[in-house]
Amino acid sequence: MQVTFAFLRPGIASSRLRAEIPQRELEKLGIMKGRDILVYGKHVVPRHIAMKFGKRVFDICDDHFHTVHEIYYREHALLADLITVNSEEMARIVLAETGRDSTLIPDPYESEECPAGYGEGVLWYGHESNLKTIEPYRDCIDVVLTHPDWTREKQVQAIHDCAVVVIPTDERKGKSANRLIEAVRNGRFVVAGELPAHDEFKPYMWIGDIREGLEWAKSHPKECIEKVPECQPYIRDRFSPEHIGKLWLEALQSI
Fold first, then answer.
1. Angstrom distance (rounded) from CA 102 to CA 89
2. What pTM does this model have?
3. How far is residue 109 from each of residues 50, 106, 210, measured CA to CA in Å?
4. For 197-211, what is each residue's pLDDT tens digit?
5. Cβ within 8 Å of residue 123, ≥6 positions away
């Protein structure tokens, strides 16, 4: 079996987490690139290209079923031999929109695990398409890191410099917890909005009202630092690239 993951560019988290890292981990397991199976997401692989591969896996990590990309998503969901998703909520969305079951493969972490700390200020980082989520809280956020200034190196440094990472959410409920996971891996407490994928982190991080959470974090730096190493072991194996690579292998072998 040979597998090719369609990769966009490093600045897109889903390309790194759902193409670059899985491709690398599968190669460690002896699965090389080739035309047996194509794994692709977003809306960038035309049908005639996808059909050149023996089988197709459509990886859905964003809900575009009611956007300008709706026709593409519905067409390729039907075309796929397997649909994969990044969260349980996304699986429910895919089933409701297409009538098809999907296989859940979480996003892996990217960073080495770092000691907990509490630097200066509140940090938000992410894709520019998510900037609208921080508008109600812009007065509470000290550093915003996004395109065109974003790099992986700047992201890691910004997390290490800050006191708290903030992750507001919106109506898009199928997203994964990848930004929360990365912040905790880098040793920082997270104040995040409600999201189904955030629920499992409620014993460790602040999940809920953003302003209330930021006020609590500012008043309880010691507790923030203590919560991080409580959460890190939960993340360590569950979201490791090695574990996620094995989940991809099992899913691909099923078709």
1. 11
2. 0.94
3. 28, 10, 24
4. 999 999 999 999 999
5. 141, 142, 143, 145, 158, 159, 161, 162, 164, 165, 166, 188
